[in-house]
Amino acid sequence: MADSLLNSMHISAAGMSAQRSRMDVVAENIANAESTRTEDGGPYQRRQVIFETVAPQGSFSNVFSSSLKSNQHQTVKVADVVKDSRPPQELFDPSHPDADSNGMVKFPNVNTVEEMVDLNSASRGFESNVTVMQASKRMFLKTIELLR
């Protein structure tokens, strides 16, 4: 019983860590939504978090039976943070310091509405993992209380 509770807490912690990374990247995207000049020379490019499943290896029956007996469990981690390949937005503003000879300015491919939806989704995922962590903690404490 205690192993199952610890496993659920470990899985929740991994989920919270992954969602926190996602929220950090979304915040970076929003902060740079107007950055027309970066160290690379062009406008900021939106970034996305890629998650990866971390699972025990083996056949289904072996993984299932070993997960009931040990600390082997499926979890999630951040595999990579990649740049969004969508092209930058181009707007006509000849007075902008980064305007080209035609008066066009390249702005980041960041849509703040899309970022807010992504932030909300990551926040809900984080909250879900917190709820599981709290439930596991309550069950763990109840188990200790029953063993007294």
Helix content: 40-55%
Question: Helices and strands: which structural class?
Answer: alpha+beta
Through-space gap between termini: 16 Å
Using the CA coordinates, give the radius of gyration: 22 Å
| Share in β-strands | 15-25%
What's the rounded overall pLDDT mean? 87
Largest sheet: 2 strands, antiparallel
Count of extended strands = 4
Based on Cα principal axes, name the global outline: elongated
Structural features, described:
The protein is of the alpha+beta class and 148 residues long. It has a domain at 2-33 and 47-83 and 110-141. The chain is 51% helix and 17% strand. It contains 3 helices and 4 strands; from the N terminus they run H-E-H-E-E-E-H. Helix 1 packs antiparallel against helix 3 (112-147). It starts with a helix and ends with a helix.
In short:
The chain is α+β, with helices and mostly antiparallel strands and 148 residues long.
Keyword list:
two-stranded antiparallel ribbon, 51% helix, Flg_bb/hook_C_dom, Flagellar basal-body rod protein FlgC, alpha+beta, 3 helices, 148 residues, 17% strand, FlgC
Any chance you could write out the topology, listing elements then pairs?
Blueprint: H1 2-31, E1 47-54, H2 60-69, E2 75-83, E3 89-92, E4 104-107, H3 112-147
Helix pairs in contact: 1-3
